[in-house]
Design brief:
By secondary structure, the chain is mostly helical. It has one domain: MOB kinase activator (Butyryl-CoA Dehydrogenase, subunit A, domain 3, Up-down Bundle), CATH 1.20.140.30. Bound molecules: zinc ion.
Length: 252
């Protein structure tokens, strides 16, 4: 379902994709997830398969979503520059400040490309950390695994928020809008299924869009919803340059 878009070639990948080792449980789950996605119903695609370990399922999907967001950001990366996006924001109301709690403890304000680079490097390092994402058979996940997963999903969401607010027109012009919406919808189904972003404030910048995408699905896959026709899709324009935060910046 996600392979038809011509712009998604490897040359545009922002950083190397993470792979699942062939022959492992995780590889099998990855293949299963891909196949279910192809069937079109995103709710089924995010549901934990019968008898499988929830941590393994979270691990596989975290890697897959990370790869997907890499690709999406890669599409507009050349337009997301220090000049065009001097602040990591989602419109004029939301600014994101970066802190990883280790090398950068006090949240810093930075440009969008710098923030995204910090963020994706931080995720990549976590994915490569055997203590958090063990690949050895029988090695348990750490007790704070869920905390790491929640943190990753909360932060990756901000890349979507930035793309929607600051690069939506460009995505549309490149013909990538349907793909962006499908990827984001899949992401949100997963987030809701496992309560990965419990604080509603974090979702606020895209809440209207989320409601619209979900309502569309309700109509398509059952339930029906009159609200679907009345909620407008948030289609912000390139409004990031010079954005001032009017709400408390989201750090951590
Ligand atoms: Zn940008």
């Amino acid at each position: 379902m996600f392979k038809g878009f011509a712009g998604l070639d490897k040359g545009k990948t922002f950083r190397p994709r993470r792979h699942h080792k062939a022959g492992t449980k995780r590889y099998e789950l990855h293949k299963y997830a891909q196949a279910t996605l192809g069937a079109g119903n995103l709710h089924d695609a995010v549901t934990l398969p019968d008898g499988e370990d929830v941590n393994e399922w979270l691990a596989v999907n975290t890697v897959d979503f990370f790869n997907e967001i890499n690709l999406l950001y890669g599409i507009i990366a050349e337009f997301c520059t220090e000049t065009a996006c001097p602040v990591m924001c989602a419109g004029p109301k939301y600014e994101y400040m970066w802190a990883d709690g280790q090398t950068i403890k006090k949240p810093i304000s930075c440009s969008a490309p710098r923030y995204v680079d910090y963020l994706l490097t931080w995720v990549q390092n976590l994915l490569d950390d055997e203590r958090i994402f063990p690949t050895e058979i029988g090695k348990p996940f750490p007790s704070d695994f869920m905390e790491h997963i929640r943190n990753i999903f909360k932060r990756l969401f901000r890349v979507y928020a930035h793309i929607y607010y600051c690069h939506f027109e460009r995505m549309g012009a490149l013909g990538a809008e349907p793909h962006l919406n499908t990827c984001f919808k899949h992401y949100m189904y997963f987030v809701y299924e496992f309560s990965l972003i419990p604080r509603k404030e974090e979702l606020q910048p895209l809440q209207e869009l989320i409601d619209k995408l979900m309502a569309d699905d309700l109509q398509r896959f059952g339930g029906g919803s009159a609200a679907a026709a009345t909620v407008g899709v948030a289609a912000p324009t390139d409004a990031c340059a010079g954005a001032q935060a009017t709400s408390p910046p989201a750090a951590s």
